[in-house]
Amino acid sequence: MLYQKICNRVGVGLYTLSLFTLSFLSDGCAGQSERKVDSPTLIVEAESFISNSGNISVVNEKKNVTAVQTKDDDAWLNYKINVLLPGRYTIRLYAKNKSDREAVCWIEDHIDNKDGKTYNVSGKIIVKANEHESANYIQTESTPLDASQHYLKLHIDKGAVIIDKLTFTLISTDVSLPAVSYSKSDGKEWKLVWNDEFETNGLPDPSRWNYDIAGNYASWGNHEAQCYTIGRKENAKVENGKLVITAVKEDLEGKRYSSARLISRATWQYGRIEVRARLPRGRGTWPAIWMMPGGWSFKDGNWPDVGEIDIMEHVGHDPNIIHASAHSRDYQWQAGNQKTGVVNIPGVTENFHSYILEWSSEIIKVSVDDSCYFTYKNEGLGETKWPYNKPFYLILNVAIGGAWGNEKGIDDNAFPQSMDIDYVRIYQKK
Ligand SMILES: [Ca+2]
Ligand SMILES: [Ca+2]
């Protein structure tokens, strides 16, 4: 699918659209409530604390703006927030400081942690002296937050500040090494080690799947035309036993189409990866089932040296032609010498087929159903030709346009278009 080498990672734009719902719990002075925010920004009103150091007061800053006033003394405020999607978040503290000394704030996560460690998720947040505008905020570097209820403490190490709210904005889903990693290659029989049959309607199972939207903010070099979204059923949902990834023609985040790119949370080194799917149709569509190494992120910039295995690629302007490829430093798309196989399978947009990778330390074999059409043997000449010696994760996406998908233009009348996936099954040898 070609991640492509990235030279400049542009500033990550803030995700201001209503792409999913986050909620937070507050059961403090504001009363028992659960508030849902139709935005990837989680807003935590300063006054929604569940406990505090005592030397604070709740004030009405202006009409409809309630805030917390601290005294010129150490103070803290505790909050419970419910993070529904894992990823990297930037935190903003909306505060002002009428005193003539700066206030140093920081946010501690997991304050119920028992092993004595503290988790500072914000770094120092300095509220400068004589900062009179409460509309101002101080923004932190992004920090990873997992999907769970977080018990946070906002520390104010001296300073008389008036704090209106904190916000947590998701800027990217992380592509860090997933928690579960399997590695087995010996033996005779295949054993199912991971699967998703897509039996539960709704969003894709967050324990198995994450979203990759990083390409929205930085050119991947493919010049793809879609905006990938997070947790949005219009682009990714489970329905009738299938995972449905849908490309929609709509203006979103400066792009003309929306779609989704799902990545598995698990990685595997060697095995049989089987994805049963029905492909989208129409000029400009570019669905893919492929794999990249765990722990690698596009901003590392060393594609394709790390290795890429494409189990299935299909471009709408060349219907029924299925491609499989292996990209490495020495054999790659930019040089035109990647290892590739092609097969013509009539009716791939009408019927389900199994797209299968069998991968060991010696060989990569790709099949549609029972017919193998691509093999690539380890020549034993090292990592620049065979980087397929580490755990990889699975990627399922429908790209629109891009260097390859756009060769014959995009047929806007074709949309919406979906890739339907009946199941993903990962086997390894016993
Ligand atoms: Ca407030
Ligand atoms: Ca199914």
What would you say this structure looks like, in words?
Strand 20 and strand 21 form a beta hairpin. The strands form six sheets. Strands 17, 19, 20, 21, 22, 25, 30, 31, 32 and 34 form a ten-stranded mixed sheet that branches. Strands 3, 5, 6, 8, 12, 13 and 15 form a seven-stranded antiparallel sheet that branches. A seven-stranded antiparallel sheet has the order 18-23-33-26-27-28-29. The chain is elongated, with a radius of gyration of 24 Å. The chain folds into two domains: 22-172, Jelly Rolls, CATH 2.60.120; 181-429, Jelly Rolls. It is 1% helix and 49% strand. It has one helix at 402-405, and strands at 22-26, 33-37, 41-45, 51-52, 56-62, 65-70, 74-82, 87-97, 103-109, 119-120, 125-127, 137-139, 143-145, 149-157, 161-172, 181-183, 190-196, 209-211, 226-228, 236-239, 242-252, 255-259, 261-264, 267-269, 271-278, 285-293, 308-313, 321-327, 339-344, 353-359, 363-368, 371-377, 392-400, 417-429. The chain is built from one helix and 34 strands. The chain has 430 residues and is mainly β. Bound molecules: calcium ion (2 copies). One calcium ion binds at residues 197-198, 241-242, 422-423. One calcium ion is lined by residues 45-47, 65-67, 164-165.
